[in-house]
Design goal:
- The structure is a single chain.
- It contains 9 helices and 9 strands.
- It is of the alpha/beta class.
- A 7-stranded mixed β-sheet has the order 5-4-3-6-7-9-8, with helices on both faces. A two-stranded antiparallel sheet has the order 1-2.
- Strand 6, helix 7 and strand 7 form a beta-alpha-beta unit.
- Helix 1 packs parallel to helix 2 and helix 3 packs parallel to helix 4.
C-alpha cells in the first residue's frame, strides 16, 4: 500500500472511531436525561438509523418548553409537536370482565411526544390495577395524578368511587396535546354515563409552579376548610398518583415539592409512586428521587430543600413486558414495575429509610 493510501486509511479509521465515540457520548447523555434511544434493527443501515434515533432524541429533549433541558419559552412556536392527527386510540381491558365498562378507549397524543405522554406505560397499568383490586385506596377520596398522560389511573380511580379526581400533565400556550388527550378520555366516560360530570377534572400544570390550579377543582366541593388559627386552609388531596415519572431526573425536586404542597397534612394521606428503570445501568439516578424524599425537611421552595420529610415504603414489584424489547440482556429488568408509598413524616419522629431495591 502506498504511503498516501495508508494515510487515507488511517484517517478514515480515526474518523469512524471519532464518530462512534460521539454517538456513544450523545446516547449516554440522552439516556441520563431520561430519553429512551432504541438500538438499530439488524436489517437497517445501522449508522444511519442510529443517527436518526439520536437526532429524534435531541429534538424530543429540547422540543417542549418547561420540560427537561427546555430552551423555549411559552411564546416560542418552535416547541409544537409534529403535525398530523391529534390523537390515536388504544383499548385497555379491565381486570374484571364484568366491570362497567369492561374496556376503556384511551386517546393518546399522536406521534412521539417529547415527554413520552404518547404511550400507556406499564407503571400506569400496574397502578390502575392496584386501584381496581383495592378500591378502598380511592373510594370517597380526593385524588391527584401528576404527569398523567392519557390518565388511565385517574379514570380507574373515578370508576372505583373516588370523590373527585384531578388529572394533570404538562401544558403550555403552544402545547396542549396532553391535556386535550386527558380531557377526551374524561369526556368519553361522562358521555357514556359511567362517571358524573363533576367527578373528573383535567389541569395543565408544570411541576414546581404554584399549585392553586391543581387545588382549584376541589373548591367546587367545599374546597376551603373551616378557618383555624392560621386562617382558612385550602382543601388538598388524600392520594397522589405518580406513574412512571422519576425517569425525569432533573425534575425530582420539583415533583416532590408539588406532592408536598398538594397532599393533605394528615399523616395517613399518601403518594403512590410506580416506576421502571428504563436504563437499568443508571438505576441509581432514578432512586435519587427517594433519597431526596427521605432527607430532612428543609425550606419552602423546591430549590430550597423543601422536598424532604417523607417516609418511603416498598409496596410491590410486578414483572411486565417492556414496551421496547432490545435483546440486550436487560429487557426483564426494564419490564419490572416498582411501587413505593410516600407518607409525610410526623414532626418530632425519626423514621428509618426504606430498605430500597
Amino acid at each position: 500500500m502506498e504511503p498516501k493510501e495508508r494515510v487515507q486509511e488511517v484517517a478514515a479509521r480515526q474518523s469512524a472511531q471519532a464518530e462512534m465515540a460521539a454517538r456513544h457520548i450523545l446516547k449516554s447523555f440522552l439516556q441520563m436525561e431520561g430519553v429512551h434511544v432504541r438500538p438499530p434493527t439488524q436489517e437497517a443501515d445501522n449508522e444511519s438509523e442510529v443517527d436518526q434515533e439520536l437526532e429524534e432524541g435531541l429534538l424530543s429533549l429540547f422540543a417542549v418548553g418547561g420540560g427537561v433541558g427546555s430552551v423555549n419559552s411559552d411564546n416560542d412556536d418552535s416547541n409544537t409537536e409534529e403535525k398530523g392527527p391529534t390523537f390515536v386510540s388504544e383499548t385497555y381491558t379491565r381486570l374484571d370482565p364484568k366491570a362497567d365498562p369492561p374496556t376503556l378507549e384511551l386517546s393518546l397524543a399522536a406521534g412521539r411526544h417529547s415527554l413520552w405522554g404518547h404511550k400507556v406505560w406499564n407503571a400506569a397499568k400496574v397502578l390502575g390495577e392496584m386501584l381496581e383490586l383495592d378500591p378502598s385506596l380511592v373510594r370517597g377520596k380526593t385524588v391527584l395524578e401528576l404527569g398523567a398522560g392519557c390518565a388511565l389511573p385517574s379514570l380507574l380511580a373515578a370508576l372505583n368511587g373516588a370523590k373527585h379526581v384531578v388529572a394533570s400533565d404538562y401544558a403550555s400556550s403552544t402545547d396542549q396535546v396532553l391535556v386535550e388527550a386527558m380531557q377526551s378520555n374524561v369526556d368519553r366516560l361522562v358521555e357514556q354515563g359511567h362517571v358524573s360530570k363533576g367527578a373528573l377534572s383535567t389541569v395543565g400544570y408544570v411541576w414546581g409552579q404554584p399549585v392553586h390550579t391543581l387545588l382549584a377543582p376541589l373548591e367546587g366541593m367545599g374546597g376551603v376548610e373551616e378557618e383555624g388559627k392560621e386562617g382558612k386552609k385550602r382543601r388538598k388531596f388524600d392520594l397522589i398518583i405518580c406513574a412512571d415519572l422519576i425517569f425525569n431526573r432533573s425534575e425530582h425536586k420539583k415533583l416532590l415539592w408539588t406532592c408536598r404542597e398538594c397532599l393533605e397534612e394528615d399523616g395517613s394521606k399518601e403518594v403512590l409512586v410506580a416506576y421502571s428503570h428504563h436504563d437499568p445501568e443508571k438505576r441509581a439516578l432514578d432512586l435519587a428521587f427517594f433519597t431526596l424524599a427521605e432527607q430532612e425537611e428543609g425550606g419552602e421552595g423546591p430549590g430550597e430543600g423543601g422536598v424532604g420529610g417523607w417516609v418511603v415504603e416498598d409496596v410491590s414489584v410486578e414483572q411486565c413486558v417492556d414496551l421496547f424489547v432490545e435483546g440486550d440482556g436487560m429487557d426483564e429488568e426494564r419490564g419490572k414495575v416498582y411501587v413505593k408509598r410516600l407518607t409525610r413524616r410526623r414532626k418530632g419522629t425519626v423514621d428509618w429509610p426504606s430498605s430500597g431495591e
